[in-house]
Amino acid sequence: MGRCWILALMLLHVVSSKAQYWGEVGGEGRASRTQGVWIGGGASSFGFSGSSGSSGFSGSSGSPSSRVSAAYTALQAWKSAITDDPFGILRSWVGPEVCSYKGVFCTDVPESMSPGVVVSAIDLNHANLKGSLVKELSFLSDLSVFHINSNRFSGTIPDSFRVLEKLSELDLSNNQLSGPFPSVTLLLPSLIYLDIRFNRFSGSLPEDLFNRNLDAIFLNDNLFDGQIPQSLGNSPASVINFANNRFVGNIPTSFGYMGPRIKEILFLNNNLTGCIPEGLGLLSEIELLDVSFNSLSGHLPDTMSCLTEIEVLNLAHNKFTGVIPNVVCSLKNLLNLTLAYNFFSGFSQECGSYKNSGFDFTGNCIPGSYMQRPPPECITTPVNINCLRIPSAGPVSCGSVDVLERKAVGKRTGKPYRAKTP
């Protein structure tokens, strides 16, 4: 699913065509794939009118009419918990015809079942509503999409959400929600898109987060701390964002075993230390990697030469040392390379010849180069002996890296590794 997500990096220091590609904040306007057609939503401009969506009707209890009645109860309970509605959206939330409510979308029940409609999506992005989430929202048993980004909801996510078996997209970003990581989200069997960025969640991440079948995980701009779980390597996600939190410790060594599905991962602006794992080279399909504004150190691994699809690589504002190797500068798809404000002591021959406007080497210790650190700062270059690497005598064989990758994928999936035949 990698490129189907409409993502938002909202990271102004990464200026690249890649960031522009992913679009606007919050994934708004996304629609799931469905057998029906969205209807309802009133006259609202907030949402899915005319889009296709995924309803997944099997397993819902009760007739469509009884489920719409339950939806009325849920939405009225939620309305009573909303204390400010500056755009007057909730003025349409009157009477039992819930499919006419602004921001509420319904789908037809297939003809093989009792005729009628059910509530399949809520999209109240950018409504600026103030209030809280109520336990009665669990009555929306056919809900597959719940988007409420850019509001002022506070409090926690009710435990009753665990019964929303069809929920595939949950976007709670840019609110004022708080408390520990909402573990109830890990009990949603159909969930593939989880966006809780720009809130006030805190504490450590549960190990099981990266064992779930999530394709997009946005955790950035919260108050999370502790170490990133070693289970990271189990994640099938194509996009993960850890940025702007308080994570400490090393990038998990399992990072390299995420396999080819990971396309973008951001660790920037945390308190991470240690080295970049050698297994980074296993991520042969990754397109964006940002570890800037941490305290990572040591030499860059030679396996970076296997990152043939990478377009944006940001290692700025860390404590990396050594010579910037050819294998980094010569990556064929690289558009934006930022190595600024480290302690690199020189270029390899190929890096020194690059005049690419998307490459930034300022603030290092490279003699004769523009805008470098003052010499006294370079005398006290930080050294992490655990991260020192002796450069390879020849180029890294990405074929051998590919063998390791396929073995790692086989270990996760239970399918035995088989060598490729010529």
Automatic annotation (TrEMBL):
Its main location: secreted. GO terms for biological process: cell wall organization. Residues 1-19 form the signal peptide. It is found in: Secreted, Cell wall. Keywords: Cell wall, Cell wall biogenesis/degradation, Glycoprotein, Hydroxylation, Leucine-rich repeat, Repeat, Secreted, Signal. Pfam families: LRR_1, LRR_8, LRRNT_2. Residues 73-107 form the Leucine-rich repeat-containing N-terminal plant-type domain. This is Cell wall hydroxyproline-rich glycoprotein.
